[in-house]
Amino acid sequence: MGKFSSLDAKVAVFKALAHPTRLRIVQDLAEGELCVCVLLESFPIDMSTLSRHLSVLKNAGVVDCEKRGKNVYYRLACPCLTRIFDCLDALDADAKRCACGR
Amino acid sequence: MGKFSSLDAKVAVFKALAHPTRLRIVQDLAEGELCVCVLLESFPIDMSTLSRHLSVLKNAGVVDCEKRGKNVYYRLACPCLTRIFDCLDALDADAKRCACGR
DNA sequence: TCTTTGCTTGCGATTTTAGCCAAATATGCA
DNA sequence: TGCATATTTGGCTAAAATCGCAAGCAAAGA
After folding, report:
1. Taking the CB of residue B46, how many other CB atoms lie within 10 A of it?
2. Shortest CA distance from A88: residue in chain B
3. Which nucleotide across the nucleic acid strands is nearest to A20, CA versus C1'?
């Protein structure tokens, strides 16, 4: 049984992505791993709030983290997750790739 | 500008999918359009609740609806949306398709 | 050991979402 | 026109999510 095979696991992934800050975090992490303090520079929010967003993403299986020295580095659990964005972008960018022709 | 190009539009899509009932509705509609009364048979919830879930999906641009006679028929706004599920399923079913090798 | 830095967690206040019931609306049929 | 059916909307309450502040904790360095 895969990580995202159950309905609830999928719901958790979508719920994790269903917040502007978390979605931007995921987009940032698509470029490569980042530590919390670096992420914090991109977001005008309290570090505790950022930390909670990261834990939502982690619990959903969207990201992993690793502590190295004083810092905690977050990365996408699977880079393939960005394909989800590709799906949406494809609908915008290239109607021909969309089977329904819209 | 496509329908899902902005961050907020993407968030709305994920938010719409971030509920077990709505996710199952989308899965059901992937097979083809259905009217509210038929959908209702699949879910042990109040019709008013179902109607609200459908309006969340509609406002996010995930589904469209059309009234024909006494019934309202819902369908996926774009069948391609099911590619989002394919993305997740691919991670479970076929590790080779996943660039990160997990 | 003591202090600083980086991050997480407990908590309370506020906002958002979900659910049901009841009322409103719209269509079709008698 | 009047009634039944199908769906949506208003109003309410309960539950969940969000946020910042303050406190806790672990690793690093003085």
Report:
1. 10
2. B4
3. D18
pLDDT tens per residue, range B4-45: 999 999 999 999 999 999 999 999 999 999 999 999 999 999
Distance CA B29, CA A87 (A): 18
Residue nearest to nucleotide C26 (CA to C1'): B70
Residue B97 structure tokens: 């398709």
CA distance linking residue A7 with residue B96, whole number of Å: 23
Indicate the class that CATH gives domain B7-89: mainly alpha
CB A36 within 8 A of CB A47: yes
Domain positions in chain B are 7-89
Q: Which residue of B has its CA nearest to A83?
A: B87
pTM exceeding the 0.90 threshold for the entire prediction: yes
DSSP state of A5: -
| B29 CA – D19 C1', rounded, Å | 37
